């Protein structure tokens, strides 16, 4: 099986192979393979360790994120990312998990710029608010176009939380446990998938 990143899954057989190349014959073609009737966009502050950023992208692709954006926040630990390396990791994860669609990965932008351009229907922001926020699984409705904001290790600043609500982002909880940034991003992605598997 071979995927093209544009929704195509191809059943193939090997015609010839050697150390430098491999030639395949296409036996069957499946268009829009694994197409979902919902859309998950994760906006996340990159962690200090770039390895953890890449690990997050790999796992988010496997779980089913369609778009990943990196955001620069008041408490960000990292102000740039290695987009080429991240894209390579995403392609590898797509192939390994037989996802036919390659997620869109966007370079880092300031949080306010991101919020200004975000036009997803359902917008959420993960925020540690001592049990006062509804859990994401109770807030999200199935078959929607989601955007989920995940902050850095030091969380979003109070100003950023207030600003996000002006742009239509609803504060939500991801559970009682304090999560690292990349874990929170994966938890959100997984929860939104679960909402759509009910």
UniProtKB/TrEMBL annotation:
GO biological process: rRNA base methylation
Compartments reported by the entry: Cytoplasm
A GO CC term assigned to this protein in UniProt: cytoplasm
Catalytic reaction list: uridine(1498) in 16S rRNA + S-adenosyl-L-methionine = N(3)-methyluridine(1498) in 16S rRNA + S-adenosyl-L-homocysteine + H(+)
Keyword Transmembrane helix: no
Gene3D superfamilies linked: 3.40.1280.10
CDD domains: RsmE-like (cd18084)
Residue ranges annotated for the Ribosomal RNA small subunit methyltransferase E methyltransferase domain, each copy included: 39-192
Pfam families per record: Methyltrans_RNA
InterPro entries assigned to the protein according to its UniProt record, in alphabetical order: Alpha/beta_knot_MTases, RsmE, RsmE_MTase_dom, tRNA_m1G_MTases_N
One GO MF term: rRNA (uridine-N3-)-methyltransferase activity
Primary localization: cytoplasm
This enzyme's EC code(s): 2.1.1.193
KW Cell inner membrane (keyword) present: no
Keywords: Cytoplasm, Methyltransferase, rRNA processing, S-adenosyl-L-methionine, Transferase
Role according to the record: Specifically methylates the N3 position of the uracil ring of uridine 1498 (m3U1498) in 16S rRNA. Acts on the fully assembled 30S ribosomal subunit.
Protein family (similarity comment): Belongs to the RNA methyltransferase RsmE family.
Name of the protein this chain belongs to: 16S rRNA (uracil(1498)-N(3))-methyltransferase
Species of the source: marine metagenome
């Amino acid at each position: 099986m071979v995927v093209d990143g544009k929704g195509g899954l191809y059943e193939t057989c090997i015609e010839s192979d050697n150390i430098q190349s491999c030639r395949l014959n296409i036996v069957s073609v499946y268009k829009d393979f694994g197409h979902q009737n919902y859309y998950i966009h994760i906006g996340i502050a990159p962690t200090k360790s770039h390895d953890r950023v890449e690990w997050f992208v790999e796992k988010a692709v496997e779980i089913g994120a369609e778009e990943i954006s990196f955001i620069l926040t008041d408490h960000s630990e990292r102000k740039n990312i290695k987009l080429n390396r991240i894209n390579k990791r995403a392609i590898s994860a797509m192939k390994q998990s037989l996802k036919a669609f390659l997620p869109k990965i966007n370079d880092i932008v300031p949080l306010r710029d991101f919020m200004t351009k975000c036009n997803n229907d359902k917008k959420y922001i993960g925020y540690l608010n001592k049990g006062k926020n509804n859990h994401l699984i109770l807030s999200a409705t199935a078959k929607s176009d989601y955007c989920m904001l995940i902050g850095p290790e030091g969380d979003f600043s109070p100003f950023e939380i207030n600003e996000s609500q002006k742009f239509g982002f609803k504060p939500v909880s991801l559970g009682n446990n304090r999560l690292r940034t990349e874990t929170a991003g994966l938890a959100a992605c997984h929860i939104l998938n679960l909402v759509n598997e009910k």
